[in-house]
Structure formats: structure tokens, C-alpha cells
Task: structure prediction
Amino acid sequence: MFCLCFFLRTETLFPIITIITHTMSSRNVLRRGLKTSSSFAQSLPALKERSAAAATTKPSIFSQIFGGSATKQPPMDEPMPNVIIPESPIYPKEAPKTLVTTLSNGATIASENTPGATMAVGLYLESGSKYEQPYMSGASHMLERMAFKATTNRTNFRITKEAEVMSASLLAAASREQMSYTVDALKTHLPEAVELLCDSALNPKLANHEVAKMAKDLKKEIEELKTNPQAMLMEAVHSTAYDGGLGNALLASQESIDAIDGDALREFIAENYVAPRMVLAASGADHQELVSIASPMLETVSKGSATTTGKEIPSKYMGGDFRVKNESPLTSLILGFEFQGGWRDAKRSTAVTVLSMLLGGGGSFSAGGPGKGMYSRLYTRVLNRYGWAQNCTAFHSIYNDTGIVGISAMTDGQHVNDMIAVMAEELSAVANASQITDEEVERAKNATISSILMNLESKAVVAEDIGRQMLTYNHRKSPEEFIAEVSKLTKQDLSEVAAQMLKSNPTLCLSGDIAGAARFETVRAMF
Result:
């Protein structure tokens, strides 16, 4: 019948196909046990009426194989029978406040009872690479890798199993000024999480064979990092820019790893993990409950003394030039300047944060988008204009009393001097208020506020914010205070901070194809 259709005229083709389709549909309807009509107009309504033959439901293929019968589920728009829907949680009308308790030995407990089923708790210590003496270089990096291993009370296996039972996330991080150990888990596991956290951070076993095994793994990690020029350049920036504690390497070197053993690490902990330089911070926990759980453990920590406590090594900004040549056809470079005052200069550090957001930047192949640098100055004025600019991004590394702010970039060796000139031009431009528009300042301020609020959605970030602010300011500044400071900034504030920074000696670091790079004196003369 289908073959005959192709020999008919065009005007009769559609009616015949329609009749064939209707006939086949009617047969399918009858086969399913549904009533139908000979009239085509009544064929569709007939599908809604069940026939007596269809009243008995045939068992499904799975029922025939495994036995039993199919369960009839209610429609999606009807509630499930015998299911109790819990009431929506009632959230407080006011934002939770940060509560602080100081123990007799100087240790601090601070928390914010953020609503929700989970919590984050962390131990934050004023300890890092700037407290390392030359013979202890790399200790912070090694302690970061040895975190949540065997303690004097637990084996490594037991710590792992306890974390699994709590479904907890364990994390440790070392920086130049601070060290952190954090645990994320459900609120119901607060006692177990705090006990595990304090034991792991304050009582590590640090057996020599475990340290030796970790040292072997660290050597491989350092070798892999050498293939990442941007990461190694950031280390070089600090060693070039600072003389003293902040100039100490955060990443352990091959030589320092061989000199570190368990005894050396325990000595470093005894000198730096002291109660007055320690904050236990939590988000999503009741403060009184947290204090009752943690105080018996933290009160046993030593206060330290003038002779036994590790002292911060003073840091002085110097600036300078660092260059390393390799076989890469590309050149990675960083140009930075000193920011005096650091985090403890609240207004100016806020201005630097907004200034970095205003400069923005990214990679030439970045997807971009609002908040990702697409409308920032370095994106519109550099990456969109120069095809040889593969990356151009603002950065800032700020510490308690000082910091370094600038631009990192990547280009091919033939355009390294062009890139340096563009970087110098962009930094000089933001030091002049007349070259900054009110529109881009407002965009940078809004992006900064948006970033703050989005990050504080995470309880882990809230706990970290509490701990680090307590170490830096001895109190916690609320997000509303910081947002108010951001909102009050003007383009004159941003340009004044940039102009002050450009008065310092530049720090220039290059890696890759540097054969044609300008001399340091030439770069310094650009400002």
C-alpha cells in the first residue's frame, strides 16, 4: 500500500497517508484495549475511555520475572499518602553576632551561630614562614603536609575513620603569617570535631619515619611546581621584595627538607603554638557549648615566655630584580610595589582591595563575564587591545603591616618590553584620579561587595574570617562595616593609594625568554 502512494498524484497523496495513519492508530488503540469510533472526529476523545478489557492490568515484565505487582504511584501534583512534610525552619530576623571568650592562658574562642545543619570549626595560629629561623626553613610547609596524621593519642588510621564516621572534611593551610587547621561537619558532631581538631593540631606525633616519607613526597611536589613559572615567580617576588621574615620561602627547598626531622618540627610547635597566639573559631555552633567543649583542651596549652616563644623576624621592603632563563618561548613577569600599612590600616587596605578589583584582568582565553574581569581595565585596555598579551592580572599579597601590590602577566619573548611598558602605563594611570571614571569605580565597588557576600555564604569561609580577623585586629569586623567602608571610597582614595605605592622601589621578576628584557634601571625610570 505504501508503494502505491508514490504513483498517485500529489493532490491525492496526503489524504491517502492520512487514512493509512488513522487506520494504523485505530488498530493500536484497539490493541491496547481502548474504545474507539469509526468516525475520525471522535477518535481522539475515545482514547480517554477505558474499555472493560483494559480494566485488568497486565503484570509488567519485571513483575513476571521477579514476582510481585507494580505499585501505583499518585500523580506528581498530589501529595504522597502518609508523608509528613516538615515545617520550614524559622530563621532569626537579625544576623548572628560573633561572640568571643578569652581563656586564662590567653587562648581565644570566637564563634557565630549561623543557621543551618552544618558547622565549620578551625584552629588559627599566628605562626608561619616569617617565624622560621634559617635552620628551620620549610617547617610550616612540612607541618601543613603532616596535618591530621598520627598524634600521641590517635593513629593515622583512627583519625581517618573518625573523619569518615562524621562525614567530615579536614583541611590544613600554611601561609607566611598564619597557620590554620579546619574541620567541616554536621552540627551534631561538634564535640567529636573539636576534640579531633585540637588533638591533631596540638599533639602531632611526628615520628621520624613519617616525616622522612613526607619529605620524599614533598621533593616530588617541588619538582612539579618548577614547571609552573607563575607559582614559582610569586615565591621569588617575596624573596626579592623583602629582607627578613616575609622574605623567607614558604615552600620548602630541597636542602631544607633534608634538614627537617620530627624533633625540629616539635621544637617549632613548642615555640610558636602558644595560647596567646591561638584562636579557635567556629561558624554554625552555639558559643557556650563550644566553650564548654574546647576550654578543657585549650587551657592546657602553654602561655609561652619571653625566652621560649618564637619571635617574629622583622621584615623590611627592599624591592629589586629577579630573572631566570629557561627554554620556554614565553615570558612570565610580575611588577609590584610596596603597600605600607597592611591589613591593620583598615581604610587604605580596603582601597587596595577595590583597586585590585578595578584593575582586574585575566587570561586571553578566559570566558570572561561579569565578575570575572571582562569589564575591568586590564581586560578592556590590555587583553582586548594587544594580541600578544596572553595574561594580564592584578594581584595583591597583603599582610598585617605591609604588602605588595601589582600586575602579573605573560607574553612571548619578542614583546616582553612592550608588556612591561603597558604594565607601567596602567599602574601610572590609576595613580591619576582624572584617568579613572566614576562608572568603573562603582563597578569595582559593587564587584567587591558581591564577592564578600558570596564568599560568606560558606561556613568554612565565615570561620576562617573570624579566626584571621581575631589574630589581626583582636576583634571581628562585621560584613556590614566592611561594606560601608567600601561604599564610602572615591576615585581620589584609590588614586592616592596607587600614587603612594608607586613611590616605593619596584619589584620586577621575570622567567622564561628574557634575552631582550629591559634592564631594571630602565623599568624604575618609568615611574
